[in-house]
Each structure stands twice: as C-alpha cells, then as structure tokens.
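Revision sheet: structure tokens.
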Amino acid sequence: MSEHPIEFVSPADFKSRARAALGDDKLRSSFRGAMDFLQAKRAAQFPDGEELEQLRDLGEAIRKHALAHLPDLLVQLEETLMAAGVHVHWADTADEANAIVLGIAQARGARRVIKGKSMASEEMELNHYLAQRGVNCIESDMGEYIVQLAGEKPSHIVMPAIHKTRGDIGKLFEQHIPDTTYTEDVDALIQTGRRALRQAFIDADIGLSGVNFAAADTGTLFLVENEGNGRLSTTVPDIHIAIMGIEKVVAKLEHIVPLASLLTRSATGQAITTYINMISGPRRRGELDGPREMHLVLLDNGRSQAYADIELRATLQCIRCGACMNHCPVYTRIGGHAYGTTYPGPIGKIISPHLLGLEATADLATASSLCGACGEVCPVRIPIPQLLIRLRTEANRAPHQRVAHPLRGQGAKYSRGEQLIWRFWSGAFARPARYRVFRWLATRLNALAPARQAGWTRYRIPLKPAKRSLADLLRERGQAE
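Predicted:
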C-alpha cells in the first residue's frame, strides 16, 4: 500500500485538469483505443436493434416502477433481510455510513478488511476513512487494487485502471509487492496480483462488497463480477458488510434478470458476466461457508434530493454500466480523473451535484456538447442531455429564488451582470419597435463591438454585427420584412 495518504482532488478544479488531460498525448491515445474497443464490444452484443429497444423499454419500466415505490420497497427489503438475520443500517450521509462501518469493525476488534468492488464505498472514501482510524482496507478487484497501489481514484466506474498501461502496472507491482520483478506480460501481472491478494482473503476480519441490485420480495442482494474476488470477499471472512445506494432496490427478483442482461452487455460487451452472486443472509445451520454475521448499509448521500424532483428522479435509474462514458466525446478525450468525482462522465455530471452540491460541480454540467450520445446508449433511457440542461438552469438560478425542490448550491454560477444582459436582450426583442431600433444601432455601430466577449472569445472569434441587416437587404429587393 502507499505510504502516503490518498489525496482526493476537488471537482471545482475541473477546468484546469481538463486542460492538462488534453495535453497528455499518452492518456488521450489510451482512452481513444479503449473507448473504441468498448463501443465495438457493446455493438456486437446488440445485433438486433428491435430487441435492444424492447429490452431498454423493459429496463426503463422496471427502474421507474422501483423508484415510484421506493420508500415502500426499502421498508420491505429491510424487513425481509432482518427476518433472514441481516443487520440493516440507514445512513443519511457518507460520514454516517463510514461511522457505521467503523463501529462494526471496532466492536469486533477488526483491523483488516478485504473489499470487493463498490462504487458506493468509493463515494464515501471509505478506504481513506478507515486507514486514518487504524483499519486496513484492501481492494480485491484487480483494477481497484491497481489504483489503490497508485494512490488514485478509479477513472472509470467499470474499469477503474483503464488509464494505466501494462508498463505502469509493472512498475507499480515491482515497487509495492515484495519479490516482484518488472514485467509487462499481462498473464504474469495478473498472477502476481492474485498471489498478493490470496492471503488477504484468509487474513481479513471483514469482507465488504457493493450491491448491483436488491430484490425487496426475497431480500436477495445481487452482485455481478468477473474475477471471483467478490465471491471470496462475501464468503471467506466471518463478517460481511454490503453497502448499497437506496436507489438499487427493485420490487421482485425476476425484475433483475433483464437489468443484468442490459448491465453486462452495455458495460463490457459480455453476454453474461463470469460470476453472479445472490446473497440472502449469513451462514445458516448446516452450511459449510459464508459469513457468520452480515450487515447492509443503505446509503442516501444526496439521493433523496434527486428523488424529490420528478424530473431529476430519472438520475436514479442508473445501473452503473458506464456505457455513457464509453460513448461521450468529452470523457473519451480527458478521462475520468479530470472530473474529480467518484462518478465521472455523463452520469457523473448529473449525479455528482446531488452528492456534492452545485458549488463544487457547477462546471461539470457545462462540460458537454449535448450531442445526445449518452442518452442514445443508456440501457434504461435516462434523458441525460435534458438533465444537464436542467442542472445548468439550477446553477444559474438566483440563490434565494423560491422553488419547489431547491438543490444544494442553487445559484452557484449566478451572475447579476449576465442576468442584466439577458434582461436587456429579451427586452430588445420583446417588441418590434424596440427590435428595429436595436438592429439599426447594431449595424451602424458594429465597429464598436468589443474584441473580448467574456467566455465566447476564449475559443472563438468575436461576434460582430453585419453592416447590413437581412431586413435591409430584403427591403432593397422590394420584399417585405
């Protein structure tokens, strides 16, 4: 592990990091190749366009149904799991969730945690929190293990170390894993990582995991993975702690089947993932493996804010496949670390404002061409472009304007000067007489147009009115305005 604490960056510095990423030829080349590969893999898994659209309709309906009944389904899930012997905890914030996990560890004298892939724990910055309090948490997903050794956050929600080359990983393993020589052979690197992690599963006091979906009717926690580390993390240690965002619940176990099909095919281009884990409680009498004690932490951390607004609620439909990132022209060019958020790319732009507030994330919503590629490939039809426009509106809304469901950090990009400009502009175009006067002045005084026009001229030539308006040209031809 790194001897130095992990330094997490702020999304407020997005613009400077994006500029740096654009100047990194190695990073851009790596991401371009990886994204082209993932796009092709996804396309190959959906050869029948009609089947894809039908499956997307079904996936969207299942997620919308679950969100429409979210409070009741969460209560049902809690009751079902508690009846099976699972301890259920509710956390309003990341700090509360961290404290719950730490409390469980301290009560059992636990000092070693082995962790399967969990984006919820990433947004909590759980590893860093536990390390500061004497509990060592080791990532067992190979990609997560690599970025943990590097002291970084994941740059992609499905492939955390996608920004690393074989050479980068070889150097990391040589530096951090005893008796390891440098190599760029992929098979040798994988075997080195497995040997380093194998004993950690046995030594761990607690196994921690995420949750892809949870069925309220059966109390089943559903996890997908490709390495088997998730299964080891949830069965070998005596204590299993699962962390789940409250939006991951669905009404019935059968609802998970189409979602799982959409998830794996959209994420990695696999017809089905290598491992499917369905967990419904701790070890029962007569069973030879599994944890003797199990906990589920239900994490809110800003999700209720999105849920309260009917339009923004669609954000919570996400199944964390990463397809929107793989097809986004912005993410493809700058990578995930530029965003400074747990969830980068298009989905990060719409969910991070709820987790972190608009003050820190206001620039993310504008880092989009609104090309619509993210919405076109989303397996559950989240209208990401429309939500980006809505978040831009909220960031520019007057801070104290009363609205039905105010967002944390409302008005983060509000400018009185900009509002005055828009008021003048709308006033000039509101009445024909005003517009004609404005047009006459603009064409006659066009030489006075400023050379620097705020953000516009940062990347474009200055706007300058034409010497003759279209109305003038039409009038000269005898045509009515």
